[in-house]
Amino acid sequence: MKLTEQEITNALCVNMAQRKQLHPSQVEVVLMWDEDLGFSAEVFAEGRNQILIEANIYEAIMQYLSQQQIRVFRDQIQLDLEDEIVAYIHE
């Protein structure tokens, strides 16, 4: 299974909205990749911004898939940089 950058962004929006008790449309996410730091995301909500590390992205993906009745563990998820940032879910 492969998640697109938009699906990863949606997962992070839903995850952060639940944490901050907001509607997902009130959360904006920008995915980033750096050669030294790896994958991260910048989240904008309630007039503030927050940087999320790769572990937070994995957590959001696991929660997102869980809501779709798909159970995955951290070691089954692989983030990759193609034309966009994608996540491969291995069985």
UniProtKB/TrEMBL annotation:
Phylogenetic classification of the source organism: Bacteria, Bacillati, Bacillota, Bacilli, Bacillales
Species per Swiss-Prot/TrEMBL record: Paenibacillus chitinolyticus
The protein's name in its UniProt record: DUF2653 domain-containing protein
Superkingdom: Bacteria
InterPro entries the UniProt entry points to: Uncharacterised_YxcD
